[in-house]
Every structure is written in structure tokens, then in C-alpha cells.
Specification:
The chain is of the alpha/beta class and 248 residues long. It has 11 helices and 8 strands. Strands 1-2-3-4 form a 4-stranded antiparallel β-sheet. Helix 6 runs parallel beside helix 7.
């Protein structure tokens, strides 16, 4: 009997869209001002091929016959088939301010294949923030994506030393707990670190105190005594077993 199962369709390559968007990024005073306000340099923007669309509308919504209003968006490529379109002004409802197109992928995922310390963070702006202070980071996409991120590690075990640094809120702490448990079960080394200096996330920390954030990130990346002590203080006995497993 012939199978009626349809093969999965590969997501379309949108690299040409990135190229066009990247050309307009620094032509827009609004986009440049947004990046500056978030502490992101032109060097980092170029490294991650950031772009700008002054009148972006969701291609997915348009294909579904919907007609969402256009809005100016920062375009953050996450793969050849996926990107994040981030609103840069207050004209968009909060729930639509950060839209993902294509098959969601972590930003800077390739960093996990290199033997180096890598911060695991929630959002793409957090990855850019660590890049600003000379560190590598990988986003999981959102606090609810911890399980999906762990599944990616099942497909390819990381060579990097993972430094967990999710947002300092209930959702972020829950996601970090899930990552700690999942990494321990897989025997993947990790540290939980706190480099935020009281901020909610890495981008807030960068904006509030760039030098302090740079120094804290550098200490954590060295996995030195201060970083390990901070880990112990923050996580206490409930995570000690997972910590020792990570070291082994």
C-alpha cells in the first residue's frame, strides 16, 4: 500500500531578506537610536547581520489571509530559514512586539561546538549583550523553550562549558531549574552564574553598568573562585548535587 504521508516541507531560505534589511539598518536614525539605547554597537550589529524593516508585517500572517498593521522592526537572523522581528517603538501591542518567523532556532548556536565558556540566556538581545563585553552566548528563545533547547543538545552534545544565566524572574528561574535538571541527567557540565548585578536580564545589566557587567561576565567565564562561590550562594544545597555532577 502506498504511503499517503506528505514529506515535511523545508522552510524557505530568507537570506535575501536579511541582506536587504542589513543594508537599511544604519540608514535609519530610528533603528540606530534603538541599538544605541540598548547598548549594542555597530560592530556587534554587523557580526550578527542585524537588519531593519521600516514597515514589517508577518509573512506567516499574510499567508493566512490576515492583514496585520506594519511596524518598524529590528531583524535578528537566527538561521537561513528563521529570524526574530523585534518592534523598536511603542506602537505595537506587547504580545506582538517580538515575532518569530520560520522554524525557531537559538541565536549563535554554533558557539556550542567550540571548547569555550558559553552563557546560556533567554533572548537574542542577551546574546548581543554578552558579545558587547567579549563573551559568547546562546539564546534558548524564551523561558518556555528550555525543553526544546535540551532536545537540541541530544542531537549534538556541546563541547562548550555552559554557564546558565537566565532572567532574574519567576519564569527565568523556573527555566534555569529545568535546564539544570536536564543537563545533570544528560551528564553535560554546567555552572549556574549570576552576573546581572541586580538587573532582570543581561541587556538590562549592560545598560545599567557596562564595566561591571563586563567584569562579572569575565569572572564567570573563567569559572574562578568568585563565580563558584556566587553559584553556591544563589543555588544553595538544593542544586549542589547537580553542580558536582557538572564538574565531574
Amino acid at each position: 500500500m502506498q504511503s499517503t504521508t506528505k514529506p515535511m516541507q523545508k522552510a524557505p531560505d530568507v537570506s535575501s531578506f536579511y541582506e536587504r534589511a542589513a543594508k537599511t539598518l544604519f540608514e535609519s536614525s530610528k533603528a540606530v537610536a534603538y541599538l544605541q539605547a540598548r547598548g549594542i554597537s555597530q560592530e556587534t550589529a554587523r557580526r550578527f547581520q542585524l537588519g531593519f524593516d521600516p514597515a514589517w508585517r508577518s509573512p506567516t500572517a499574510l499567508k493566512q489571509g490576515k492583514h496585520p498593521p506594519s511596524s518598524p522592526r529590528l531583524i535578528i537572523p537566527t538561521s537561513a530559514e528563521s529570524y526574530v522581528a523585534r518592534a523598536i517603538d511603542g506602537s505595537v501591542e506587547p504580545r506582538y512586539a517580538k515575532m518569530k518567523e520560520g522554524s525557531a532556532r537559538p541565536l549563535n548556536l554554533a558557539a556550542l561546538a567550540r571548547a569555550q565558556p558559553v552563557f546560556i540566556v533567554e533572548g537574542e538581545m542577551d546574546v548581543l549583550s554578552f558579545a558587547e563585553v567579549g563573551q559568547e552566548a546562546v539564546s534558548i528563545g524564551s523561558a518556555s523553550s528550555a525543553g526544546t533547547f535540551l532536545s537540541l543538545l541530544d542531537a549534538e552534545r556541546p563541547k562548550a562549558t555552559l554557564l546558565l544565566c537566565l532572567d532574574d524572574d519567576d519564569a527565568g528561574r523556573h527555566a534555569q531549574q529545568k535546564l539544570q535538571e536536564g543537563l545533570s541527567a544528560r551528564g553535560i557540565p554546567f555552572y549556574g552564574v549570576d552576573v546581572l548585578g541586580g538587573a532582570n536580564d543581561p541587556n538590562e545589566a549592560l545598560q545599567a553598568n557596562r564595566e561591571g557587567f563586563r567584569d562579572a561576565a569575565a569572572r564567570a567565564a573563567r569559572c574562578d573562585e568568585a563565580a563558584l562561590l556566587q553559584y553556591m550562594q544563589n543555588n544553595a544545597a538544593s542544586h549542589l548535587a547537580a553542580f558536582l555532577s557538572g564538574i565531574r
